[in-house]
Design brief:
Layout lengths: L6 E2 L8 E2 L1 H13 L12 E2 L7 E8 L3 H6 L5 H6 L5 E2 L5 H5 L6 E5 L4 E5 L6 H6 L1 H6 L13 H6 L14 E2 L12 E11 L2 E10 L5 E6 L6 E3 L2 H4 L3 H4 L6 H11 L5 E4 L2 H8 L1 E2 L3 E3 H4 L10 H9 L13 H18 L1 H6 L2 H22 L6 H4 L9 H7 L5 E3 L18 H11 L5 E7 L2 H6 L2 H16 E5 L7 H9 L4 E7 L6 E6 L2 H11 L3 E2 L2 E2 L1 E3 L9 H10 L6 E5 L7 H7 L6 E5 L12 E6 L2 H11 L3 E2 L2 E2 L1 E4 L4 H13 L17 H23 L4 E6 L5
Helix pairs in contact: 13-14, 19-28
InterPro entries: Nucleotide-bd_a/b_plait_sf (IPR012677), RBD_domain_sf (IPR035979), REX1-like_exo (IPR034922), REXO1/3/4-like (IPR047021), Ribonucl_H (IPR013520), RNaseH-like_sf (IPR012337), RNaseH_sf (IPR036397), RRM_dom (IPR000504)
GO cellular component, one term: nucleus
Organism: Halcyon senegalensis
Amino acid sequence: QEKSSRLSAALFGEACEISRDQLYELLKYAALGKSHNAPQPSWCHIYHQNHLAGVVVIVVHEMSQLYFYKFYLQFKHLRKVFRHRFTLTPSTNFLASLYGERANLKSQNTAQGLTTTSSGCVPKSADLQRDPIIRKYGGKKKGLTSYTLTLEEQKKNDYPIKGSPGCKGYIYTECDQQRTDSSPLFGLDCEMCLTAKGNEVTRVSLVDAQGQCLLNELVKPESTVVNYRTRFSGITKKMLLPVKTRLSDIQTRLKKILPHDAVLVGHSLNSDLQALEMIHPSVIDTSLLFARNEGRRFKLKFLAKAVLGKEIQCEQKLGHDPAEDARAALELAQFFIEQGPAKVAELNLEMLLTAEKLAEVSQNKAALQQQGRRVQKQLNETPRLSKPCFLDCLQVTGQKPLLLGRQELDSSGLRQGNLSTSNKQILQRALEDVPLSTFSIIQFSLDPAHSASHPLAELCGKVRSKLTDMLTIYAGPFEESFCLKSVEKEFGKCGPIQSLTVVTETHQPYVCIQYEVLEAAQLAVESLNGAEVAGSCIKVQRPVTAAMLDCDVLIKELELDVENEGVIYVAGLKKSLTETDLQEEFSQLKDLETLFLPKDRQSGKHRNCCFLKFQKPQSAADALDFINGWTVKGSKLRSRNALAAGHLWRWIWLMNHRNGRQGGKILHEKREQLSDSEQDLRKKVKRLDHHIKKLYRSLQNNTLCIVLFPGVN
């Protein structure tokens, strides 16, 4: 949770899971920012990083995501304040890995704090003067007009020029206004297929200076396609079959979108403009901007990784994404302009490229060894390349990280508290020391004895059992000869059903239904209790067990959770409806921000429900009134406030499927009264939540605070 700064992130599905490296990206950018060449994280965006007063990471040892759900009601402050939550993928030696590999780091403790020396890779002053970037642009920062290509440079690099004999019939953008250093930048990229005519555009993407996609369109070539070049373009014959947009349509739209002083940015942009058959007078070409010796050029993929820390053009993807490439080129130009040639030269891109090639050679060597082949002697001498160390980066910039807690960190050189230190003592130290540090890691812990007395499997079983009860409803009584299909159809309108069984032990038959999402079960209780289904007036209720006595309280708290603010659940959709269909149907809803249509993780098919997130809670409330009873393509919709955020929704799915399809058939064992140790554990969790609340409230405005549940192992 940031105070005043905003962290935007996706709500549902895979986006709710982040890796250790992604967390590292976030911490590095938050602590260092652009002024120290740290790139924005690849998975989220921090606005106004230079306004951040500090970064505080609170690590809660021996606790995992499971504990958050088990003690949800006890974590009163945590769930009310921290609105962004993510599943962190497991990793060994968690805390040590958070700092990166501490290779070649010599450190010593002093009375004042931690001082370090490390071998850096920043070029010396004499080397910088010989750098092709410095030779071309000098060392001082300049405005964007200093980096636009001159007419001579455009001619030399085969750009379409107004009045040139080879550009007959080309469309001029008519952007003739004088460029200034505040002129707007636009990233442009195209994908081409080979046709009988030559290279023709099949996809065009245009992004603005904020990275927003203004145009991302498939284009039908005029001539017959000879080679779709799917490996690079990502275009297939099937994709182009329904397309009616032609090159002339794109030319018209680009002319309309671009203001008269627009500066186009791209990587080898000449080929894109040639394929578009368009002439634009002011361009920045990132393949020429990041200058190299002897006319060589860096690839966009390498620059994105080395300069921005972003992976693009991944091998797992089918072809390149032009919007991604346009955004990368734009951000590279922005980085160059903001940081200046000297800072870019200090990145030592040639050395990084050499290191990357050496790393590839090392990987190839390992692959050859596995196959039992002999390798050349030189490969055996290739040095192991270590990852950059986060703490090195902090200390080089003069920042002194603070680490408080009772967990030891081997060979880190960081001062530790006594292992017998209590959480209360750690809190007192944190309240005194955190304001003096720009980067702090505060470690709280449950008593390890509690972890031993509550094995993970036992705790997991209890949470799974309670979630199963919350997902399960009983409906009835029905007539002896009732139609089960009618029941399934009616209850299916509330959401996806996991299992459905008939209970015959009662005087009249009942049906036990287990849903896949909490919202569906709650919707069934709210809308079908007392309704007439399959010819009977029925009662709908959840299982009555000791653990379910606080179910209504839990449902209410989940509904009020800040993560679910402005989010509603909609059920009763036809499975044939696509995301595009729904976007069209719901386009009239005010302030709609995101639509998420869940898929079955095994079949990949869409579910009959979706989630809608609105920019304002009031807009979500208005949408609820509007949607309930609304008919879409013959289906009557039902909706309610969301209960389960993306990480919980995904976790429930995993819990259900680890057990196979037995979820609805779990027998509800007799629960005994809470043991003394479990009551004690609840009190400890409550106190821990209070410590986090106290520490959080003491932080300066504009502090990024992250709480980690790393788990036992």
